[in-house]
Amino acid sequence: MNLSNKIQNSFKVKSHCTEIFKVHTVDSLVSKGKGGLFTSKTSIVGGGYNIIPRSFVDGLVVQSNLSTIETTEDDNSHVLVKVGSGVVWDDLVGFTVSKGYLGLENLSLIPGSVGAAPVQNIGAYGAEASTFIQTVHCYNLKTGIFSDLSKDECEFGYRTSHFKSKPELFICYVTFRLCKSNLSVKELINSTKYSKLEFLKDTFRLIRLSFKSITLKFSPRPKIKFSFSCIRDILTLCILPAKIKRKIVSVIRTKTLHNPDKIGNCGCFFKCPILPNAEFEDLRNQFPEIEWFEHDKQSVKISACWLMKNTNWAGKKANNVLTDTKRPVVLLNAGSATGEDVLHVMSQIQHDIKSKFNISLEAEVVVL
Ligand SMILES: Cc1cc2nc3c(=O)[nH]c(=O)nc-3n(C[C@H](O)[C@H](O)[C@H](O)COP(=O)(O)OP(=O)(O)OC[C@H]3O[C@@H](n4cnc5c(N)ncnc54)[C@H](O)[C@@H]3O)c2cc1C
Question: Which residues have CB under 6 Å of ligand 1?
Answer without folding.
Answer: 10, 44-51, 64, 85, 110-113, 115-117, 119-120, 122-124, 163, 170-171, 257-258, 260, 265-267, 366
